[in-house]
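Tokens as discussed.
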């Protein structure tokens, strides 16, 4: 479907505004845990499920995205996801107990999990290859800045209002988006109806078990039940992969992982996201525990890095369109190595400005890697496989992001911040090896 320039601009604006607001909800609650603990009289491990449960449901519904795009008109799908998120948010605001809050939170996670790969697929579909770098740079701006802005927004709101104000913020903004979307949203992709593979969906529940194992391992250690969950989950995922590889109409075309450059794109975008999400989680702790800042100021100290990330995203995308993705990603990985290296060898550990500068360098690296790697992967696939590729990238990125937070937390408990910085420095050296394997191309022309 061809869109006029003005129509496409409004379409993309509405899509990204809704995605930005939903993305904020992914990280916004980290600064609100103490408030929830006091309000519901529950321990931190229980309250953490507001984020963990959100991520679990996100990951398990991401593989549904290609089927939904092929069977439901995108306008109807987008409006439905907004409505589900809004209903979940209303439930949370008026919830009389924590289990009801969790129900609303899972509804929010469902909407975000379907939307993340879907909106990337649609934007890639309507954008010519030679301009995808710049367009996906804008997508990266939305994702990266939203992740960083979440704790800042919630921190400011909690200083003035109660915890319900965080969700009231989502409710107001997304209601406006819903009204705009009824006028600006279209369905640019052709439907390709197919039967729904219930068995594949059941087998994909292994993702939930795997993520549960990853998140609970630091808390439960070698508990037998946890290892049983891991074995069952890996078994489910094994049969899920086999079914996708041997079915004529798979829920998810996993065979795209055999495509040159796509596999490298998946690995690089995941490693980049691991660094980004770790910075947003670890650095506020660093500012509080090492430098002695308050929770509010530790959140505000992320603003310079988030602002620079936002400013660079579109520019790095345009650069990728001009000079090729490999060169741009090598720049980004170099910045990652410099940033983590600076934090590791910094002799002035109590200097706030050095910590902020290092964070800015690391998030700058993300601007040159995450979305260029995603675009590189998409450009390696035929258009009909892009929804499957986007779903694979989004799911793998989310799983590795969750893994990164757990690894950082474990290292922090066993060692110190230096151990975390060293681990991610080594991880970026691995990313450098992957980037050097890319078959250089200029927008894959």
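Sequence:
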């Amino acid at each position: 479907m061809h869109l006029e320039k003005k129509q496409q601009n409004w379409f993309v604006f509405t899509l990204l505004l809704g995605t930005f607001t939903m993305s904020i909800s992914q990280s916004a609650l980290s600064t609100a845990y103490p408030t929830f603990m006091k309000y519901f009289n529950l321990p931190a491990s229980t309250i953490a499920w507001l984020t963990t449960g959100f991520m679990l449901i996100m990951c398990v519904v991401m593989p549904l995205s290609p089927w939904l795009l092929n069977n439901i008109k995108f306008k109807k799908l987008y409006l439905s996801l907004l409505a589900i998120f809004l209903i979940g948010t209303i439930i949370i605001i008026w919830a009389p107990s924590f289990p009801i809050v969790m129900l609303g939170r899972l509804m929010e996670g469902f909407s975000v999990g379907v939307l993340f790969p879907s909106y990337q697929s649609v934007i890639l579909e309507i954008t010519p290859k030679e301009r995808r770098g710049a367009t996906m740079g804008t997508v990266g701006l939305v994702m990266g800045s939203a992740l960083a802005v979440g704790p800042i927004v919630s921190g400011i709101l909690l200083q003035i209002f109660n915890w319900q104000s965080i969700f009231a913020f989502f409710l107001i903004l997304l209601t406006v988006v819903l009204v705009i979307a009824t006028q600006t949203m279209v369905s640019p992709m052709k439907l390709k109806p197919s039967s729904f593979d219930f068995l594949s969906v059941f087998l994909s529940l292994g993702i939930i078990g795997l993520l549960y194992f990853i998140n609970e391992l630091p808390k439960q250690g070698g508990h037998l039940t946890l290892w049983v969950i891991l074995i069952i989950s890996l078994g489910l995922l094994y049969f899920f992969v086999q079914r996708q590889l041997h079915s004529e109409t798979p829920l998810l075309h996993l065979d795209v992982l055999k495509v040159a450059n796509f596999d490298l794109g998946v690995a690089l975008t995941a490693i980049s996201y691991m660094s980004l999400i770790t910075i947003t989680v670890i650095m506020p702790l660093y500012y509080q525990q090492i430098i002695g800042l308050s929770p509010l100021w530790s959140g505000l100290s992320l603003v310079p890095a988030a602002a620079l990330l936002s400013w660079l995203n579109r520019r790095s995308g345009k650069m990728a369109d001009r000079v090729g993705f490999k060169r741009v990603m090598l720049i980004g990985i170099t910045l990652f190595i410099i940033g983590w290296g600076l934090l590791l060898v910094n002799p002035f550990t109590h200097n706030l400005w050095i910590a902020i500068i290092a964070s800015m360098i690391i998030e700058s690296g993300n601007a040159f890697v995450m979305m260029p790697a995603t675009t590189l992967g998409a450009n390696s696939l035929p258009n009909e496989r892009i929804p499957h590729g986007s779903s694979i990238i989004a799911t793998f990125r989310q799983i590795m992001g969750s893994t990164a937070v757990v690894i950082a937390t474990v290292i922090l408990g066993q060692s110190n911040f230096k151990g975390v910085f060293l681990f991610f420095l080594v991880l970026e050296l691995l990313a450098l090896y992957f980037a050097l394997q890319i078959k250089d191309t200029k927008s894959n022309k």
